[in-house]
């Protein structure tokens, strides 16, 4: 972008950063120039996040040559903002008590065919859809009623602009495709007060992110974010979905792939320039 974008790298401190994270961070940093590259710590899942991993994130990113403005946004400090957003979404939400096993059982009832999964997991069959928010209990998750959301907005499709494709060729998803392939996503997880999708949308807006760079694995999640932005009346940024870094067997790297942790390369004497080379940057 000629005048610079505001981008972000948003890791969760649930393990050491690996080559895939280095790639995502370097792309976000590169695409921001001469704008602003922000760092956001996505630590809403308190059970899985560790402060030592957060410290390691700062160290590894600095070692890679990246810098970002302080203070860093930490999602664990933003619960009030998520609560407000959830309250605004109340007319389009319902409490749901189904556990994964219940959903699987409902989906595999003979007339329903095989369970289908979308970017938010199994596509929810709607068992609790008629429950009222006034009856929500502590063991419930909160779901967005996707059909009601499209109807309330009076739209029959979503679209977003992708920085990687020709201007004017926006990605489009119809209401029916959303309902069939994504469904009633969770906006607040049990005991968490929010979900990844809700927190990301609220925070991208709060940080004025103008370009979201993220892996292709999150492409389908972007539809959820675009829908939430519309309902919450927040701007939809430009998106750019980049390739995923895979291991030698072609599998996407995961946090448990410690051999490819940035730290392991660093301890082996690899330089940041060699990491960029390795990633084709
Ligand atoms: N915490 C998410 C991740 O690490 C952020 C990605 C995104 O929303 O773009 O995958």
TrEMBL record:
Alphabetic keyword roster: Aminoacyl-tRNA synthetase, ATP-binding, Ligase, Metal-binding, Nucleotide-binding, Protein biosynthesis, Zinc
Domain Glutamyl/glutaminyl-tRNA synthetase class Ib catalytic: 6-104, 181-277
Record-stated family: Belongs to the class-I aminoacyl-tRNA synthetase family.
Single GO term (MF): glutamate-tRNA ligase activity
Designated name of the protein: tRNA glutamyl-Q(34) synthetase GluQRS
GO cellular component terms, A-Z: cytosol
Gene Ontology biological process terms in this record: glutamyl-tRNA aminoacylation
Short name of any one Pfam family annotated for the protein: tRNA-synt_1c
Protein source organism: Paracoccus tegillarcae
């Amino acid at each position: 972008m000629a005048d610079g974008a505001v981008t972000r790298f948003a890791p969760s401190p649930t393990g050491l950063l690996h080559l895939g994270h280095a790639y995502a961070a370097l792309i976000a940093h590169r695409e921001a120039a001469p704008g602003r590259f922000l760092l956001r710590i996505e630590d809403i899942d308190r059970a899985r996040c560790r402060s030592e991993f957060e410290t390691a994130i700062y160290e590894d990113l600095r070692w890679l040559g990246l810098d970002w403005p302080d203070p860093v946004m930490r999602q664990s400090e933003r619960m009030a903002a998520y609560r407000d957003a959830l309250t605004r979404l109340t007319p389009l939400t319902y409490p749901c008590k189904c556990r994964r096993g219940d959903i699987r059982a409902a989906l595999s009832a003979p007339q329903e065919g095989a369970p289908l999964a979308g970017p938010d997991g199994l596509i929810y069959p709607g068992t609790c859809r008629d429950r009222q928010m006034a009856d929500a209990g502590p063991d419930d998750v909160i779901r967005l009623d996707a059909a009601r959301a499209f109807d309330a907005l009076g739209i029959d499709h979503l679209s977003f602009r992708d920085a990687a494709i020709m201007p004017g060729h926006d990605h489009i998803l119809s209401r029916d495709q959303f309902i069939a392939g994504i469904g009633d996503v969770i906006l607040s997880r049990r005991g968490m007060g929010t979900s990844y999708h809700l927190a990301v949308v609220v925070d991208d807006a709060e940080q004025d992110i103008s370009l979201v760079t993220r892996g292709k694995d999150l492409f389908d999640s972007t539809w959820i974010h675009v829908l939430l932005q519309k309902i919450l009346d927040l701007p939809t940024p430009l998106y750019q979905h980049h390739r995923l870094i895979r291991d030698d067997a072609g599998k996407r790297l995961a946090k448990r792939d410690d051999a490819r942790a940035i730290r392991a390369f660093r301890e082996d004497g690899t330089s940041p320039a060699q990491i960029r080379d390795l990633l084709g940057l």
